[in-house]
Amino acid sequence: MPYENNNAYAAKLYEIWEKSGAFKPSDSKKKPYVIMLPLPNVTGELHIGHAFSFLAQDIEIRYHRMLGEPVLWLPGTDSAAIAVNMLVKRQLEAEGIDVKKLGREGFLKRVWEWIGKYQGRIQGQMRKLGFSLDWSRDVFTMDESYARSVQAAFIKLYEDGLIRKDTRLVNWDPVLLTTLSDLEVVSREEQGKFWHIRYEVEGGGSIVVATTRPETMLGDTAVAVAADDGRYKNLIGKFAIIPVVNRRIPIIADEHADKTKGTGAVKITPAHDFDDYEVGKRHNLPQIDIFDEQARINVDFVPELKGLDRFAAREKIVGMLGAAIVKVETITHSVPHAERGDTIVEPRLTTQWYCDVSKLAGQAIEKTRSGELKFFPKHWENTWYSWLENIEPWCISRQIWWGHRIPAYYDKTGKLAYVGFEPPAGLTQDEDTLDTWFSSALWPMATLGWPDTGAPDFKRFFPGSALVTGFDIIFFWVARMVMMSLHFTGKLPFTEVVMRGLVTDQHGVKMSKTKGNVLDPIALVDEYGIDAVRFSMCSLSTEGRFLPFGKNDVENSRRFLTKLLNAVAFWEAKGVAAAADKYESSPLADWILTRMNTAIAGAKKSLGAYRYDEYAMGVYHFVWDDFCDKFIEFAKKDMTPATLSAAKISLKNIILMLAPVVPFTCAELWERLGFGSAASIINASFAAEVAVKTPAAKAQKWLDDLLLKQKVEAEKAGAAAELSILAKRIASLEAQLANRTFVDNAKPEVVAERRQSLADAQARRKYLESL
């Protein structure tokens, strides 16, 4: 009975569960177990990384539901502000519509139309994979109630002095015309040029700097060298002259300059490089912004360059430099690109809204050091501390229309006049929206009714239990949720953080469409069946940073489920459904039940430690090695009531152990074997150990003795057959060696070989006769 695609059965059962309210928290008085879903984008699709992460959460939710706890797995989607803004803008441009003429309200109307078309796609895919979220509580971060919570958080942080406007360097997208978070910037290795440019030194001499961006020399305000670099020691304190620009700038000593790299001298452009910005702050250097918002030259002191795009300006200025360029190298270097749109990002000096999270980081560090907040694996705590202890102000404003608008208002002179919900008449609201991560940071609270701390859901389900998420957003999301929750409620939003690895192909190569190695979880489900896909992902969910995964892994899981189904079919034929439900003792029954107890204890321990691979493989080996390969074979010669009873108890607990990961196959078997309706398994108690009369060690010794006895019997049976063959061999050799003609005429080495063969055969006969 091979395991076959059971998706149609799964879909029907899932619908029964959802409609019956099985995914909602029960009325149990036990402490709730709460997981908040890491937010997928509102217009997103389920990828293999989502599938691995969401499966881990579903396993925990199903397991804790079976422990009798009221569980809440709260679903939702994120506004995907920049992504949606870009896609809708492109659609409008393709239709020939000028976004600026359309205006903010017209643009947002089109955004909602777009979302209406694509929203819900990922929820449908999550249902197809059997994820048991409480869909009645589904939240979109742009819902009115959630938006109100976001505004309340901004207002309170502003009143607490933690939010202010400041002019700093940011990642700037000159196409989308907005700031970007570090997570929205992807650095890529590219081939480029490395220009070595001579700057004359005032009073005589020169100094050579090297750069990949010669156009930024328009904004240079210093040249830095290492204090102990003998080549330049006598130049520190003098002034260099920027060629073409003819502006004098100081030569300074700073740790940023590395005498072993390039020329050892570094041009400093504080308004257009993050490292240079820090150097500028240390030396109080001027900041000259040379670009407008579209990365076009906006300074007047080199008229030939005014209005040129940055790359056109680069080409032009290289030509203008002439003999000042002493060398040009071709190099491979890292270039930052916008994750959305692939535009090369420009560091830019702008005035933005900032949240001073440095004042919030201390509590997050303290809660982790005290053990109140735990990381799985624990080594992620080191990364956590490193970032929080060196945290920078968080740029929370974005120059796009789609998103949570900042509740700040200005008077006619442009002065900030009010921050709050109900502005006085005559004021104009800030045009900017908030970083998506700002609204996401409130997810564990805002979904439950915060800032109304008296809301029923908030009182019952906050704080939550665990967060399962990818390591790539430990700072962008996890840290900010912890800091916001501690600031606003004094409580952690969850007490355990489970970090997931990056799913790669089976060779460990990152999946990408360009490489053609992407695996679509929905396509896998269609091909192999939902439970085979779920079990394969579970068995490969290690603590590693990377999780290799391929179709062969799903094939292996399908073979395992086939093995289980064949075992069930065998016992059904033996009448296991009618067997006694209570334990009856016999050596064979005691052995399999002690092995079952070990498997159950292992499953509970692994699930409690978020070791899904150990959980899956522990059950796998019990089913395959113990229950199928040994127990069934012994049972064929010992089909007693005790054996049938042990088989029934074992099958029941195998189904219960596997139910969190392969719920649909288990539900079908649950009903087939008469344990209850298929739908009822979702609320059944998890597998329970049985009190066995024979101690585990004694039960194992019985099996070992039985295996030894079988081995001896097999050897004896083989010995009888071999003795018959040996008798003929010995008689033949003895006759040959008794023949004087053979002995006298054969080569001595041949005679010696025959005598040795006879001795070996006689020794083997003696051993076999002793068995």
Helix share of residues? Answer: 40-55%
What fraction of the residues are assigned to beta strands by DSSP?
15-25%
CATH architecture assignment of the largest domain: 3-Layer(aba) Sandwich
What's the main sheet like? 7 strands, mixed
Point out poorly predicted stretches: none
CATH superfamily descriptor of the largest domain: HUPs
Radius of gyration: 36 Å
CATH topology of the largest domain: Rossmann fold
Overall pLDDT metric: 93
Q: Give the end-to-end Cα distance, rounded to a whole number of Å.
A: 42 Å
CATH class of the largest domain: Alpha Beta
What is the overall number of helices?
24
Number of β-strand runs: 25
The class by helix and strand makeup works out as alpha/beta
Q: What is the total number of structural domains?
A: 5
The dominant shape is globular
Task: Provide a short characterization of the protein structure.
With 771 residues, the protein is α/β, with parallel strands linked by helices. It has 24 helices and 25 strands.
